[in-house]
Inverse folding.
């Protein structure tokens, strides 16, 4: 008799960008306790470096990151690459209408004075993550197309290599990353495609087939 094991979705990933060390550590610990997978960095350059590998579901970002690129411009850049990204913005200042026009409507804004309350921060993240999920909801072929079009560029690259027949180890070698990192990215892909909760489905084979139907069969490298 074959026993079916329940497939659980991986924890939601949150990239915290905050230049104040104590606040950054507090937010990281707070969200980890709430069940999120968290990477916390001090500035825009570190966020850009971590983003492709970590592949977050949401970003919690301060507006003022000191000298260099602002949190606002960082968010604009990252959401162009990953339109699915949930956005929570920390600030003690008013947001200009110019910047509002450049963001998703689902972006939420929190004052730094409110982040001592874990419930407020978690609720904000749950809201933007829920909005991102609802925005991708569909059925049948529309659901598959929506899921594929919502993938980040990193996820598309990994899925393309899966469709080429490469193993996780081979994908990791080509990306210069670890097998564990590839597995995490694949888990996010399977969840986005609606495959993660069906133990009767071979997720890898099904995802590869969906990619081929969507983008055509990739050539061999």
């Amino acid at each position: 008799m074959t026993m079916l094991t329940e497939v659980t979705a991986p924890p939601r990933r949150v990239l915290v960008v905050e230049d104040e060390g104590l606040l950054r550590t507090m937010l990281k610990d707070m969200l980890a306790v709430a069940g999120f997978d968290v990477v916390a960095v001090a500035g825009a350059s570190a966020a850009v470096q971590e983003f492709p590998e970590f592949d977050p579901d949401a970003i919690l970002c301060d507006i003022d990151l000191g000298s260099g690129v602002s949190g606002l411009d960082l968010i604009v850049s990252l959401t162009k690459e990953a339109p699915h990204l949930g956005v929570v913005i920390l600030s003690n200042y008013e947001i200009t209408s110019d910047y509002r026009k450049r963001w998703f409507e689902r972006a939420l804004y929190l004052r730094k004075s409110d982040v001592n309350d874990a419930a407020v921060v978690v609720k904000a993240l749950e809201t933007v993550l829920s909005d991102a999920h609802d925005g991708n909801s569909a059925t049948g072929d529309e659901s598959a197309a929506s899921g594929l079009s919502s993938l980040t560029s990193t996820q598309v690259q990994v899925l393309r290599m899966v469709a080429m027949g490469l193993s996780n180890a081979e994908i990791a070698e080509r990306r210069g990353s670890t097998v564990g990192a590839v597995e995490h990215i694949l888990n996010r892909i399977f969840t986005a495609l609606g495959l993660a909760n069906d133990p009767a489905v071979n997720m890898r084979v099904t995802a590869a087939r969906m990619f081929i139907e969507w983008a055509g069969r990739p050539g061999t490298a």
